[in-house]
Amino acid sequence: MEEYDMNKGVKWVIGIGLVAVVAGGFYAIKQHDKVESKTVTVGIVGDSDRELWEYVKKDAKKDYNVDVKLKTFTDYVQPNKALADGDIDLNAFQTVNYFETQNKNYNGKLLDIGKTYVTPIRLYSDKFKKLGDLPKGATISIPNDPSNAQRALDLLEKAGLLKYNHSVKLPGAKDVTDNPKNIKIKEVQSDQSVSTLKSVDAAVINTNYALDAKLNVDKALYVESVDQAHKGYFNLIATRKGSENKQAYQDVVKAYQTEKTVKHMKDLYGNAEQPAWGKYAE
């Protein structure tokens, strides 16, 4: 019978112990990463978006075991800054055009990972019920950020109120070239556009702010067309480059892009919003 070598036995036990400790350590790290990746913070703008995202949160948890935390911002600048700085994981508030313009400020650090909805921008008035009622010399407020300013000018041009210089990269009120009704354009921050209704004849207002203010979108003086020519106004979910393939982030997109979301969208917003992914964007 072979003699038992106690030293070998001790070494073997110690070796097994070390393997177990190391394996346990790797398992703990993996489990930690798994827990961390399952909590996703999404930046949104306004309370109207929050209503829909509350449904998406439930589906993300139920279908993918992802805990979505919502962080609400009051303007269009902070959500991209917060995303670039790593303070949030995703944001969902902006159009393609706005995103492309703002992403330049972050050296292309941000990335579109899925479309959400499209909301036709509208011209509202507290003083007049029809577009034709707007008098000569009327004052109209429009958003002052580059993307929304151009969108507002496009709307006013389609409405037949004015024309502007399309060769200008980021047009504003100063670029109006034909103004037969002598319309006065007042540029304001997007989140202040609703409040200007009290002091102007009409205002071009983004739909999320209109919904937050309980404006009746069906009573707008003029509505933007929705088609592929306006795909730059489709809204999107963004993240940081390098994070786009994280499973939890992809799961949030999948939780959003469902028929249930389409139904909730209709129930909450009526004609104000339309889905902008897959077959809906064709």
UniProtKB/TrEMBL annotation:
UniProt-annotated location(s): Membrane
InterPro entries found in the cross-reference section: Lipoprotein_NlpA
Database matches in PANTHER family: D-METHIONINE-BINDING LIPOPROTEIN METQ (PTHR30429), METHIONINE-BINDING LIPOPROTEIN METQ (PTHR30429:SF0)
Source taxon at top rank: Bacteria
Pfam families registered for this protein in UniProt: Lipoprotein_9 (PF03180)
Protein name as annotated: Lipoprotein
Annotated transmembrane regions: 12-29
Membrane topology annotation: Lipid-anchor
Keywords: Lipoprotein, Membrane, Palmitate, Signal, Transmembrane, Transmembrane helix
Native source species: Weissella viridescens
The UniProt record lists the keyword tRNA-binding: no
GO CC field: membrane
Family of the protein in this entry: Belongs to the nlpA lipoprotein family.
